């Protein structure tokens, strides 16, 4: 007998093939079910497990509405701010995530945003597509140099450390702030964000969204940055006060920004569309074939382990 699984997110072909091979699965390749539809599917199918991602919020109310047959819920993401862990623990629902497998591609994307923002790639690409390339003076349309500059990293976890390695390859000076010093890290530790910000030509954010990190990059923080600083966020949109960042970009206090995440995604603040010195991408840092397959497979490995009576590989509570 195959275990019963409901997937509430469309999956890459390789992951979907494994789901259908190993599970008695409910999976729609055309559309994601709504929350009421997902709950109805789990009840009707008497599901043992749920596979979801950050687009599906596992709130206390949703957890309470899950059929009792559901033993494990696996999110195909490293972040888990969309999960009410206290409610999951109270119900005895095992919840897992997918750390490690998306580290490299997320760091690649963050560094891509850094380079694109520094060299004004968005503005220059639009200039070409609009057939608006005309002779320019030597002082027109200039970006800022990357090599030799100082990169400040907020959050020196797996992705922060991967970002530091990429920055060193570009001959950048790397500094970071975190709750504690990271043993063996070849970067300068700065105890507080306020102390680090004035040193940052580039600032990149790699922290989860918590009450402590919400809007941590606000107007006061941005004011501490040196002239022509570049801000990159590929973590969670709520870490940045978006109105304050827009104002800093408009005034020239911040030279440019590269953003892959937004506070109200996917319906992001439409004012961003008219900010020329912001590079915008739709939360796609993990968006490679290899990484999305790895995320899906890791989620399935967690589900299979729990349903086989073994400990979860990546439990979010224990």
TrEMBL record:
GO terms for molecular function: glyoxylate reductase (NADPH) activity; hydroxypyruvate reductase [NAD(P)H] activity; NAD binding. The keyword NAD applies. Pfam families: 2-Hacid_dh, 2-Hacid_dh_C. Residues 111-285 form the D-isomer specific 2-hydroxyacid dehydrogenase NAD-binding domain. Residues 33-313 form the D-isomer specific 2-hydroxyacid dehydrogenase catalytic domain. The keyword NAD applies. GO terms for cellular component: cytosol. InterPro entries: D-isomer_2-hydroxyacid_DH, D-isomer_2_OHA_DH_cat_dom, D-isomer_DH_CS, D-isomer_DH_CS1, D-isomer_DH_NAD-bd, NAD(P)-bd_dom_sf. Keywords: NAD, Oxidoreductase. Belongs to the D-isomer specific 2-hydroxyacid dehydrogenase family. This is Lactate dehydrogenase-like 2-hydroxyacid dehydrogenase.
């Amino acid at each position: 007998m195959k275990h019963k699984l409901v997937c509430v997110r469309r999956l890459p072909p390789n992951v979907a093939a494994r789901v259908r091979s190993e599970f008695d699965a409910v999976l729609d390749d055309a559309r994601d079910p709504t929350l009421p539809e997902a709950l109805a599917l789990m009840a009707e199918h008497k599901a043992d497990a749920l596979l979801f991602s950050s687009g599906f919020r596992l709130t206390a109310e949703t957890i309470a509405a899950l059929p009792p047959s559901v033993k494990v819920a696996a999110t195909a993401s490293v972040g888990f701010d969309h999960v009410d862990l206290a409610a999951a623990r109270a119900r005895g629902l095992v919840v897992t995530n997918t750390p490690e497998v998306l580290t490299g591609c997320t760091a690649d994307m963050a560094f891509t945003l850094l380079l694109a923002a520094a060299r004004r790639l968005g503005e220059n690409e639009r200039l070409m597509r609009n057939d608006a390339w005309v002779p320019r003076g030597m002082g027109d349309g200039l970006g800022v140099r990357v090599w030799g500059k100082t990169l400040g990293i907020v959050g020196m976890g797996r992705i922060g450390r991967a970002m530091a390695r990429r920055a060193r390859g570009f001959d950048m000076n790397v500094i970071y702030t975190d709750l504690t010093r990271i043993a063996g890290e070849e970067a300068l530790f700065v105890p507080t964000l306020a102390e680090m910000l004035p040193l940052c030509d580039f600032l990149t954010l790699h922290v989860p969204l918590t009450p402590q990190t919400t809007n941590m990059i606000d107007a006061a923080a941005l004011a501490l940055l040196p002239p022509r600083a570049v801000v990159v966020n590929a973590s969670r949109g709520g870490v940045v006060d978006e109105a304050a960042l827009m104002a800093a970009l408009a005034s020239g206090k911040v030279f440019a920004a590269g953003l892959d995440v937004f506070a109200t995604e996917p319906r992001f603040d439409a004012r961003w569309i008219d900010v020329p010195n912001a590079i915008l991408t739709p939360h796609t840092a993990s968006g490679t074939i290899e990484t999305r397959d790895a995320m899906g497979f890791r989620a399935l490995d967690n589900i299979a382990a729990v349903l086989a009576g073994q400990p979860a590989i990546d439990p979010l509570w224990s």
